[in-house]
TrEMBL record:
<dbReference type="InterPro" id="IPR019887">
    <property type="entry name" value="Tscrpt_reg_AsnC/Lrp_C"/>
</dbReference>
<dbReference type="GO" id="GO:0043565">
    <property type="term" value="F:sequence-specific DNA binding"/>
</dbReference>
<dbReference type="InterPro" id="IPR036388">
    <property type="entry name" value="WH-like_DNA-bd_sf"/>
</dbReference>
<dbReference type="GO" id="GO:0043200">
    <property type="term" value="P:response to amino acid"/>
</dbReference>
<dbReference type="InterPro" id="IPR000485">
    <property type="entry name" value="AsnC-type_HTH_dom"/>
</dbReference>
<dbReference type="InterPro" id="IPR011008">
    <property type="entry name" value="Dimeric_a/b-barrel"/>
</dbReference>
<keyword id="KW-0238">DNA-binding</keyword>
<dbReference type="Pfam" id="PF13404">
    <property type="entry name" value="HTH_AsnC-type"/>
</dbReference>
<dbReference type="InterPro" id="IPR019888">
    <property type="entry name" value="Tscrpt_reg_AsnC-like"/>
</dbReference>
<protein>
    <submittedName>
        <fullName>Lrp/AsnC family transcriptional regulator</fullName>
    </submittedName>
</protein>
<keyword id="KW-0804">Transcription</keyword>
<keyword id="KW-0805">Transcription regulation</keyword>
<dbReference type="GO" id="GO:0005829">
    <property type="term" value="C:cytosol"/>
</dbReference>
<dbReference type="InterPro" id="IPR036390">
    <property type="entry name" value="WH_DNA-bd_sf"/>
</dbReference>
<feature type="domain" description="HTH asnC-type">
    <location>
        <begin position="1"/>
        <end position="62"/>
    </location>
</feature>
<dbReference type="InterPro" id="IPR011991">
    <property type="entry name" value="ArsR-like_HTH"/>
</dbReference>
<dbReference type="Pfam" id="PF01037">
    <property type="entry name" value="AsnC_trans_reg"/>
</dbReference>
């Protein structure tokens, strides 16, 4: 990945709806070059997809952060994969420290406690989990998906 690829990625992160022609003008190259570069970035899985970024608080979504400690005889990565398969799961990270995994879940409104409780119960039923601490996010100060290149 060279500097031109990075410039194209920065523009796409700002607005993935832009045409290749507009991207080409912004980065100073041809439309054909942008098209070819984007194709290669997709094929190499650097660009994983395109999506809409929602404002969770405006549509009544609550974020749960769960810290998970895995029993010593179990495979952390395998348990992480199991958790990643849950439809409510947003991200799963293997971490250092007192816990093995940190997981972010989304559920509708905190008044829908049944949904939040259901997620926690699903986690607690996974074989190999020793301890779970779950926190409800009260206010998101910053949530950014763009990566500075």
């Amino acid at each position: 990945m060279d500097e031109l690829d990075k410039k194209i990625l920065m523009v796409l992160q700002e607005d993935a709806r832009l045409s290749y022609t507009k991207i080409a003008k912004r980065v100073g190259t041809s439309t054909a070059t942008v098209s070819e570069r984007v194709r290669k970035l997709q094929e190499s899985d650097i660009i994983k997809g395109y999506s809409v970024v929602l404002n969770s608080s405006k549509i009544g979504i609550t974020t749960l952060i769960t810290m998970i400690c895995v029993k010593p005889s179990f495979d952390v990565a395998e348990i992480g994969e199991t958790i990643a398969e849950l439809k409510e799961t947003c991200c799963v990270h293997n971490i250092t420290g007192d816990f093995d995994l940190i997981v972010s879940f989304k559920c509708f409104s905190p008044t829908e406690r049944e949904e939040c409780t259901s997620i926690i119960n699903k986690i607690n039923r996974i074989d190999g989990i020793e301890r779970v601490n779950t926190y409800m996010v009260l206010n998101t100060i910053k949530e950014e998906s763009q990566i500075g290149l």
